Amino acid sequence: MLELDTADKRPLHEQVASAIRRAIAEGDWAPGDRLPAARALSQALRVNVNTTLRGLRTLRNEGLLEFRRGRGVTVTRRADERSALLDRLLDVVADAARLGYNKSDVIDMIKTLP
């Protein structure tokens, strides 16, 4: 199922969000699918449930997940494309950081693209 990279230096809640984002992008969860309970996700990822909830809230704010009382957390209809794009952007930002560039440097580079 989901795994976190122990060498990753990002905060754990960002890693949780990225792992779920990647699972959606790879088709493990499709739009309309219900995610396991936060406690089960926490156990699978070996992190605190509050860390998992913070990652889930991040994805909700990005529009990838929907929280519904009584129905749990579900993947939104537009999650496929947005999830894949955000995951690629996170990889670009991480690669840029390894090369000494910050986010604003990446944004400046993107602005110069045709």
TrEMBL record:
<keyword id="KW-0804">Transcription</keyword>
<keyword id="KW-0238">DNA-binding</keyword>
<protein>
    <submittedName>
        <fullName>GntR family transcriptional regulator</fullName>
    </submittedName>
</protein>
<dbReference type="Pfam" id="PF00392">
    <property type="entry name" value="GntR"/>
</dbReference>
<dbReference type="InterPro" id="IPR036388">
    <property type="entry name" value="WH-like_DNA-bd_sf"/>
</dbReference>
<keyword id="KW-0805">Transcription regulation</keyword>
<feature type="domain" description="HTH gntR-type">
    <location>
        <begin position="10"/>
        <end position="78"/>
    </location>
</feature>
<dbReference type="GO" id="GO:0003700">
    <property type="term" value="F:DNA-binding transcription factor activity"/>
</dbReference>
<dbReference type="GO" id="GO:0003677">
    <property type="term" value="F:DNA binding"/>
</dbReference>
<dbReference type="InterPro" id="IPR036390">
    <property type="entry name" value="WH_DNA-bd_sf"/>
</dbReference>
<dbReference type="InterPro" id="IPR000524">
    <property type="entry name" value="Tscrpt_reg_HTH_GntR"/>
</dbReference>
